[in-house]
Write a structure and sequence with these properties.
Elements: E1 8-10, E2 16-17, H1 46-49, H2 51-57, H3 59-62, E3 70-73, H4 80-87, E4 91-96, H5 99-111, E5 117-120, E6 135-140, H6 150-162, E7 165-176, H7 178-184, E8 187-190, E9 195-197, E10 200-209, E11 217-227, E12 233-243, H8 247-256, E13 259-266, E14 272-279
Parallel strand pairs: 2-5, 3-4, 3-6, 4-5, 6-7
Antiparallel strand pairs: 1-8, 7-14, 8-10, 9-10, 10-11, 11-12, 13-14
Helix pairs in contact: 2-4
């Protein structure tokens, strides 16, 4: 799920459906992104809004997938990338821990008349996924890996993803540059332009409260304000808990779960990057695993 931003600083075909309930149960009031799912497109950058554009944006990874290959997007969000990959003829499974996001993904697939499998599934539950691997590609994009609760949890999540790969498969991770985020400190970010979606203009605001150290939890509160013609304003907001990491630490984490980095590229600007990795020829020593 993507929470990237541009900001100024201020003081008919039905997809196949497989449902797996996360801890807390489907529709839980405290589920992640419950407050943002209905308006999530206001957070999606213009370059990723249309499914085909989303697939194009991940070209460094997509170009390595064989035609018709099996792909899983394990942080599908509102489904732009998953639907874009399905429209290219890949055999796609889309998973997310949020039932509301999976509903958005299914609706987007139906709107674009593509078929894909979906599941409500946490990273920890990937080994029990009804649609089993191996997959030619695993995607975890949109800064989603920052939801893993620290390094141990991050490595466990990456190991679950890596275990789904075929021997020549790829694992694609996009992440924000946390060194830039931490350098900017606690702040209130107001997007520097109105965002237009579904014929409505909205204002996106983000409030950052960073942990004292790299290992501490970081808080990001996201609000989307939608003015109405009668002068009222509907606000959708949610507080997200995230964990920061340096780029080299993510590379080390991938190596620890048996993945060699193929490429590292800037993604949608200097504040985010895309790492593509694949299974190492020699697996890591057992003690190196999470």
């Amino acid at each position: 799920m993507h929470v990237g931003q541009r900001r100024m600083r201020t003081p008919r075909v039905r997809p196949t459906v497989i449902v797996m309930n996360p801890p807390g149960g489907e529709g839980s009031d405290d589920e992640a992104y419950a407050g943002l799912a209905l308006v999530y497109e206001w957070l999606v950058p213009d370059a990723l809004l249309e499914p085909r554009d989303a697939a194009d944006a991940f070209a460094p990874a997509v170009e390595l997938i064989p035609a018709g290959g099996r792909v899983i997007d394990c942080a599908a969000g509102s489904g732009q990338l998953a639907v874009g990959l399905a429209s290219r003829g890949f055999d796609v499974t889309a998973t997310d821990a949020s039932p509301a996001m999976i509903t958005r993904t299914r609706d987007l697939a139906a709107h674009h008349a593509v078929s894909l499998a979906t599941a409500v599934c946490t990273w920890q539950d990937l080994p029990t996924l009804a649609v089993s691997g191996p997959f030619d590609a695993v995607f975890c994009v949109g800064n989603s890996i920052s939801h893993a609760d620290g390094r141990q949890a991050r490595r466990s999540a990456l190991a679950a993803m890596a275990n789904l790969l075929s021997p020549k498969g790829i694992l694609a991770i996009s992440a924000r540059d946390w060194e830039q985020v931490r350098a900017a400190g606690d702040r209130l970010d107001v997007q520097d332009r109105l965002v237009h979606r579904r014929g409505r203009a909205g204002v996106v605001v983000r409030a950052w409260r960073l942990g004292e150290t790299w290992d501490d939890a970081h808080q990001l509160e996201v609000a989307i304000a939608l003015p109405a013609a009668d002068g009222s304003i509907a606000t959708h907001q949610e507080r997200l808990t995230l964990w920061a990491f340096r780029r080299h630490e993510l590379v080390e984490d991938l190596a620890a779960v048996g993945q060699d980095v193929v490429t590292v590229t800037t993604f949608l600007g200097p504040g985010e990057y895309l790492i593509v990795a694949r299974p190492a020829a020699t697996p890591p020593a057992r003690e190196g695993r999470p």
